[in-house]
Every structure is written in C-alpha cells, then in structure tokens.
C-alpha cells in the first residue's frame, strides 16, 4: 500500500478495480477512489484467497485506506473454473467479502457487494429481489454464500446483483469484444439462444452503484438492463449497432456448448427496488452502444 496519503484521497475503496465493473467505477469516481486487488496495478495490494485465511488483512486494509465506502467487485468470475476449484471460489467469493464487510463496518464504512443472477436456477426468470436463490453451480452457490455472509457481517450493507455486463473496458474481455473479434475476423460465433437474461451496460451500472451506495437502502437490490433477451438476440443487437455482420452469429442450445458449469437459462433480473428508489436507469442495447461508440476509454469500439 502506498502509505499515509491514501486516506487523504480515498472516499471509496474499490476491491477489484482491474475488473470490468471495478474499472467502470474507478473511471466514474476518479481521484475519490482507489483500487485494491492482487496485481501491482492496484495501490492497495490484497489477494482475497489469502485474506480469507487471514481476515486481519481486511482490518489492516481499512486502517490504511480509511474509506467511507467499500465496493467489493472482486470475485472469482470464471464460472467453469470455479466448478473444479470450489475451495478457491468460496474463499474469494464468500469468506473474503465477509471479512471485508466486517472490517468496513468496524470503521463505519458502507459496504456494497456486487453479486449475480447466477444465484438463481433459471427456471422462472426474470427474478426480482424477493425470489429465492437456488444456484446451479459452484460459482452461483459461492456468490449466494457471499451475499449471506456479507449481510450477516454488516446488515447495513447493500448486495447489488447484476448480469451480463458489457461496455467499454480496458482489458476488452466482455462478451461484446469477443463477439466483435469473431465477426471482424469473419469467423462464426456460436451463441446460446436459451440463455435468457437482461444485459447490463457497465457505465450505467457504475452510476447506479454509486447512487445506491449513498442511499439508505440495505439488503439485496437488482440492477440490470431493461430488455429480456436470449444471448443470441443480444449478440445480433450489438452486431447491428456496431455495423458488423450478424449473419455470422449462429444460435445454438446451451447443451451443445459442453460448458462445465450449469447456467441458469430462463434468468434475467427485475430492478424493482432500484427503480422504486429512482436510481440511474440502465439503458437498452441501442442507447448503450451509441454511448459506447463515442467513448475512448476501453479498447477500440468493436
Ligand atoms: N461481468 C458480468 O457479466 C457479471 C455478471 C453478473 C455479476 N457480476 C459480478 O460483478 C462483479 C465484478 O465482475 P467483473 O465482470 O468486473 O469481473 P472481472 O472482470 O472478472 O474482474 C474480477 C476482479 O476480481 C479480481 N480478483 C479475482 N480473484 C482475486 C483474488 N484472489 N484476489 C484479489 N482480487 C481478485 C480480479 O483481479 P485480477 O485482475 O488480479 O484477476 C479482477 O479485478 C463480480 O462480483 C461478479 O460476480 C459480473
């Protein structure tokens, strides 16, 4: 960690700032935020797998950074890898977030834990906040455990579930970049038609996260896009807005993709509480892509 000057600038501590969601937050918050994570790109170095073993690291992190708000956007997000590494998934996605939330609570900071629609089984989506989690995968169950552990550690925390996040990103890893890479190269991309969800533009998610963190809301809140789409339908929309050849998108069934972890199929999130409260709405694909096209933050627009 960089030392005493951190607390002068750090209203917000973003754990996982090198990721897509954390990166969108850091961009929005500018100098008010610092990032914690395991790569040297982070001013605050912390490996959540180790922190899960030694929770005192969370107290040391809070003592040094003195944030008012802690956003836990770091997670083991490789859904298939989690399946074969459940101990790692639970440490990173549940034990460590709970330790961070507990340490944040001790210094009076608000915790926002970013979670996922993969806590649901995809039998009856789209889901609002009252729906009962029933995860199908190790990733989903580790995130569901993380939600409960964070809320036990700090009942004032907010758990923001989101899904299929896309938009400008320095690492260029989200689905839209992969789609564009394939179509640009004239390669067919097989995309599941039966994974139905509500794709979420990352810049709007970041704005909503910041607003919700400053609200008096606590507990579970969904923040997702307004349109319920199969992954193939979403791909077609992105391709159309980007002027790419959508005929290279091949709709397939999830079963044919041989994915290791089971995915919730009829999923998607209803942002009931966020809408009632009046947080920044998440735009649909066309408006999101129009915003993204004029953006120079991520890699070149697909
Ligand atoms: N992207 C989506 O479509 C989506 C959908 C629903 C929910 N979410 C949720 O949103 C949150 C953010 O996702 P994202 O898309 O931003 O993920 P991401 O791009 O994969 O980034 C994950 C972040 O977690 C960090 N991380 C992973 N393991 C770590 C460890 N052991 N110690 C410290 N940091 C570690 C990564 O750091 P390194 O760079 O060092 O690996 C990276 O900063 C997650 O909680 C995820 O469950 C995302």
Would you write up a description of this structure?
By secondary structure, the protein is α/β, with parallel strands linked by helices. The chain has a domain at 6-169 and 199-227 and 266-283: 3-Layer(aba) Sandwich (Rossmann fold), CATH 3.40.50.720. Helix content is 40%, strand content 16%. The protein has 12 helices and 13 strands. It has helices at 6-9, 20-29, 48-53, 56-65, 79-84, 86-106, 138-153, 175-184, 202-213, 231-242, 272-277, 285-293, and strands spanning 12-15, 33-37, 44-45, 69-72, 110-116, 158-162, 165-166, 189-192, 196-197, 200-201, 219-222, 229-230, 249-252. The strands form 4 sheets. A 7-stranded parallel sheet has the order 3-2-1-4-5-6-11, sandwiched between helices. A two-stranded parallel ribbon has the order 7-10. Helix 4 (56-65) packs across helix 6 (86-106), helix 6 packs parallel to helix 7 and helix 10 (231-242) packs across helix 12 (285-293). The longest helix is centred in the N-terminal third of the chain and has 21 residues, at 86-106. It starts with 5 loop residues before the first helix and ends in a 9-residue tail after the last helix.
Identify the notable features of this structure and list them briefly.
globular, alpha/beta, single chain, two-stranded parallel sheet, 302 residues, binds NADP nicotinamide-adenine-dinucleotide phosphate, seven-stranded parallel β-sheet, Rossmann fold, 13 strands, 40% helix
């Amino acid at each position: 960690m960089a030392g005493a000057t951190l607390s002068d600038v750090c209203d917000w501590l973003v754990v996982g700032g090198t990721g897509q969601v954390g990166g969108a937050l850091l961009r929005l918050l500018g100098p008010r935020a610092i990032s914690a994570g395991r790569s040297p790109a982070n001013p605050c170095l912390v490996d959540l797998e180790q922190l899960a073993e030694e929770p005192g690291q969370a107290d040391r992190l809070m003592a040094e950074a003195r944030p008012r708000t802690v956003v836990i956007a770091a997670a083991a997000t490789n859904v298939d890898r989690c399946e074969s590494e459940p101990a790692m998934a639970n440490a990173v996605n549940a034990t460590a977030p709970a330790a961070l939330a507990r340490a944040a609570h001790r210094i009076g900071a608000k915790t926002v834990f970013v979670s996922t629609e993969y806590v649901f089984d995809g039998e009856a989506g789209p889901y609002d906040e009252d729906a009962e989690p029933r995860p199908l995968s190790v990733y989903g169950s580790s995130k569901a455990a993380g939600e409960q552990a964070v809320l036990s550690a700090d009942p004032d925390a907010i758990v923001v579930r989101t899904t299929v996040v896309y938009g400008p990103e320095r690492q260029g890893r989200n689905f839209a970049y992969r789609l564009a890479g394939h179509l640009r190269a004239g390669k067919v991309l097989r995309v599941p038609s039966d994974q139905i969800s509500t794709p979420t533009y990352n810049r709007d998610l970041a704005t909503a996260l910041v607003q919700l963190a400053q609200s008096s809301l606590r507990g579970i809140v969904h923040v997702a896009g307004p349109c319920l789409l199969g992954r193939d339908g979403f791909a077609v929309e992105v391709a159309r807005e980007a002027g790419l050849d959508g005929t290279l998108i091949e709709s397939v069934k999830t079963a044919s993709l041989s994915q290791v972890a089971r995915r919730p199929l009829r999923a998607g999130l209803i942002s009931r509480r966020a809408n009632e409260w009046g947080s920044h709405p998440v735009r649909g694909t066309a408006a999101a892509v129009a915003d993204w096209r004029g953006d120079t933050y991520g890699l070149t627009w697909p």
